[in-house]
Amino acid sequence: MATSNNDMPPIPTVRYAHIVGWGMAVPDTILTNHDLEAIVETSDDWIRSRTGIKERRIAGETESTASLGLKAARKALEVADILPTAIDLIVVATSTPENIFPSTASLIQNWLGATRAGAFDLSAACSGFVYGLDMAAQAIRSGSMQVALVIGAETMTRVMDWQDRGTCILFGDGAGAVVLKASNVEGGVLSAVLRSDGSGGEMLGIPTVGSEDLYHSDFSSNGHKMHKMHMNGGEVFKFATRVIAESIQQALVKAEVGIEDLSLIVPHQANMRIIQAAARSLKVEPELFAVNLDRYGNTSAASIPIALCEAIDQKRLKSGEYAAFIGFGGGLTWASMIIKWTGAKTPDARSGINQQRRQFGYMRVRFRTQWKRLNQQISNFIDRITFRRNRIQRLRDKVDQL
Ligand code: UT7
C-alpha cells in the first residue's frame, strides 16, 4: 500500500505476480520405445511418427508424486532465493496424488518446513498447472499473499494399463515447480482463460475409489479398469486441436498482447502432431513452441512446468518478453495464460546465508520426522508390553480366584 501525506486512506498500489523461481525433477530410469515393444504390440517407428515420443521417465520404488514434487520445489526455492518459511501457499496440480487426503501439497509443505503456508491439491488433469498458477497469481494480486509455490507433479506410469497400447506408450513421470512472488513491477502473470466441458468427461479418466462408488452400490466405472487410466485418443486429439489456438487467442486479447509479441509458447506435451496443428492454426512457426515430449512423453500436469524450466535454462526467454502457456486434458479442461517474463536473481546475487538456512531447515525437518517416527515406535512398543503385562495380570487374577 502506498501512503499518502494527508489523512486520506492509503491508496492501493497495483500488484503483479512474477515467476521468480523454477525447478524440475524427473526420475533417472528411462523407458524407451524399444523397451515398450516387449510390453505391448507396438513399434518405435509407430510411436515416433504418431506422437513424436522417443522415451519417457519411470519413477523408481522410492520415488513418488510427492518426492518428485519436493525435489522440483527445492530447486525452485533455490533459484528464487526464498526460504520455505516465506511461502504463503502451496498448490500441487496432480492426477496421481499420494492420497485423497492428506494432500500431496501438505506432505510437501511439511518436508519443506513451510510452516506458514496453506496447502492443497488441485485436480484439473493436464490443465492443472495453469489452473494452479492462475489461482496463486490471483491470491497474490489481491494482496492477500506474497509468495506461492505452484507444483505440477505426476507418477502417471503407476496408473497406466500396461495392456492398453493406446495410452501406455504416451505417459511418463516427473515434476516441475515455480515460485510466484508479489511485486509492484509491471509484468508476471498478465491473463488467464480457464475452461471446462464436463460433458466430455468420459473421454479420459482414472476411475478410482471415490465417494460415488462408496455411496452408490450400483457405481459403475463404465467398463473401465479401476485405478487405471483410459482415453479415447482420437476424440481427445480432435478436442485438443480445436481448443489450443482459440484459447491462446482469448488469453492474448485479455492481456492486450499480440501473437507476434510472443517469444515462446509452452504447450502441454501430449503429441507433436497436436503442437504442429496448433502452430498452423495460430499461423506461427512450430519452433515458437517449447517441445520436450520426445524425452519425457506426456507427464500430465507436470509437462508445462518441466518444459518451461528447460526453455528458461536454454535462455529462450529474455527479460521483458512474452510467453503463453496452454494446457488441455481430462475433465475436459483447458487453460491458457500469458506472462511477461522478468527473470530471477543471477546465481551470484543469491544469498549464501539463505542457502545455508534452507539446508539447515530441510535437515531439521528430516530429523523431526525421524524423531516422530521413533517416538511412535517406542510408544507402540510400550503399548504392546503394557497390554501383555495387563493380560498376564488378568490371567493371574483369574487363577487366584479359582
Ligand atoms: O494428456 C491428455 C491429452 N492427451 C492427448 O492429447 C492425446 C491425444 N491423442 C493422441 O495423441 C492420439 O490419438 C494417439 C497417439 C493416442 C493415437 O494416435 P492416432 O493416430 O489417433 O491413432 P489411432 O488411435 O487412430 O489408431 C490408428 C491405428 C489403429 O489401428 P487400425 O485400427 O487402424 O488397424 C490402432 O489400433 O494404430 C493402432 N495403434 C497402434 N499401433 C501401434 C494404436 N496404438 C498403437 C500403438 N502401436 N501404440
List keywords for this structure.
single chain; 402 residues; alpha/beta; Peroxisomal Thiolase, Chain A, domain 1; 5-stranded mixed β-sheet; 4-stranded mixed β-sheet; 11 helices; 20% strand; binds oxa(dethia)-CoA
Description:
There is one protein chain. The protein has helices at residues 33-37, 44-51, 65-80, 104-112, 128-141, 211-215, 233-255, 272-282, 293-296, 303-313, 352-401, and strands spanning 16-25, 30-32, 55-57, 89-93, 118-122, 147-155, 173-183, 188-196, 204-205, 230-231, 262-267, 322-329, 333-340. By secondary structure, it is an alpha/beta fold. The radius of gyration is 24 Å and the shape is globular. Helix 3 crosses helix 4 (104-112) and helix 7 (233-255) crosses helix 8. It binds oxa(dethia)-CoA.
* CATH level-four homologous superfamily name: Thiolase/Chalcone synthase
CATH class: Alpha Beta
Helix content: 25-40%
The share of residues in extended strands comes to: 15-25%
Shape: globular
* Rounded average pLDDT: 92
The parts where pLDDT drops under 50 for at least 5 residues are none
Distance between the termini: 82 Å
Instruction: Provide the gyration radius in Å.
Output: 24 Å
Number of domains: 1
Number of strands: 13
Biggest sheet character: 5 strands, mixed
